[in-house]
Amino acid sequence: MEYELVAVTEPGDWADFHAIRRTELFESKGRHGVYNANHPDDVADFAHPYLLKVSGKPVGVLRLDVLGAGRAAIRLVAITAAEQGHGHGRVMEELVAQRARHFGIDTLVVNSAPEAVGFYEKAGWQKFVWDADELIGIAANCVQMKKPI
Q1: N or C end of the chain: smaller count of CB under 10 Å?
Q2: What letter would DSSP give residue 135?
Q3: Does pTM surpass 0.70?
């Protein structure tokens, strides 16, 4: 398998990026009609949206938000349902860590969905409250974690 972590800039990649997020993070959880494909955070200066392709096929997404002071948050992480359980998430996490280092990042943080905590722990993440103010609204049930890279 050939993996590629693509910085999302092209219209086709944006379409794939939003389709995966909308399907896996919103509609599969019963949240229809609320996904915002024009959210300003996706194109903010601090944001770096990525699309994981396996042999040219889009299978995963995340956004890397550079927070400053050597930290970055990975956000809205998703692998398509058909491709979950095949190790793509771990590869995507490794590839984004490489990208983060180029931004001077030494620590990644995440607001993990409760069902994803086991994945992160197996990948070396630790539970750690890094910004309690983020645990409101749709992130209220998330578990904050960190990982030095």
Answers
A1: N
A2: S
A3: yes
Q: How far apart are the first and last CA of the chain?
A: 25
CA torsion through residues 148, 123, 134, 35, sign: positive
Q: What is the pLDDT of residues 71-88, one digit of tens each?
A: 999 999 999 999 999 999
Q: Which residues are within 8 A (CB) of 22 and not within 5 positions of it... i.e. 6 or more apart? A: 35, 37
C-alpha pair distances (Å), 135 with each of 71, 102, 130: 18, 28, 10
Give a three-class secondary structure readout of 6-49: EECCCHHHHHHHHHHHHHHHHHHHCCCCCCCCCCHHHHCCCEEE
Residue with token string 């915002």:
36
Of 19, 50, 47, nearest to 35 by C-alpha is 19
Q: Give the three-state DSSP class for 65.
A: strand
